[in-house]
Amino acid sequence: GQGRVFLQNALADSLFGQRSGDGAAPVTSPPPALTRFDGRPVERERWPPLRALAGEPVAGDELVFESSQGRRVPVIAGAVPIRDGAGALIGAVAVFQDVSHRFELDR
Fold first, then answer.
1. pTM of the predicted model, to two decimals?
2. What DSSP line would sit under 57-103, residue for residue?
3. pLDDT value at position 25?
């Protein structure tokens, strides 16, 4: 699957380095500065937005983004397919929740 980002919030702007108002960015693979909590890279076929674009709902995927400033941002990711009235897959919605506060509390 492949799609385009039409709208994203300020957290996504900072994580992906592109503002949603800059045009419809393609969703073809995970950003290079993305890993799992244990440091393993995220494989293209396991990237939540692409999984949702293939029709698979995703919940609770634990990921870490590294910003261009070197800040590591732990997130919980989820994504769901969007279907029309006939059940045809027409898009997806992905959500990334910053969970940095959880790690700060654990310290």
1. 0.76
2. -EEEEEEEEE-TTS-EEEEEEEEEEEE-TT--EEEEEEEEEE-HHHH
3. 58
